[in-house]
Amino acid sequence: MLILNPQSVVFGSVVLEQVTMVAMDRVGTRVVLEWGDGGPHVVFADVPEQRVNVRVVQEVDVVVESVKPGDLGTLSFVASMSGADAGRRKVSATAVVTGVGYEVGRSAASTGAAPRAIRTLTFVLVSGNGATDPVVVTEA
Fold this sequence. Notes:
Blueprint: E1 2-4, E2 8-11, E3 14-16, E4 19-35, E5 42-60, E6 72-79, E7 89-104, E8 117-126, E9 136-139
Antiparallel strand pairs: 1-4, 2-3, 2-6, 4-5, 5-8, 6-7, 7-8, 7-9
């Protein structure tokens, strides 16, 4: 799932401003493959264990306090395909912060603009019982 310019992003009680992207990746952490005697190709595949990772990218000016690795909370955001109210969906999940990183880009010398700072927050999503999908999508 890739959401560009989501309407709002919240982690716990922290409202994340100026978010440019939310990317949700599903990764197979254990893959079972079997081959038959008939040839070199896989005849059975299964992914019994998986992980859902989320990256939230935002433009920041000054950050005094930040979320930190190990923080647990509900991560939620609202998105729509067209930016209008029609078709809005709220995506939410229990999440744990796994990383907080910063990059500072160069400004264009001719414009005299200040360098842009980008903060990337990474999360792993947590299922309540291990069997249900940690991602909940509802109408907003």
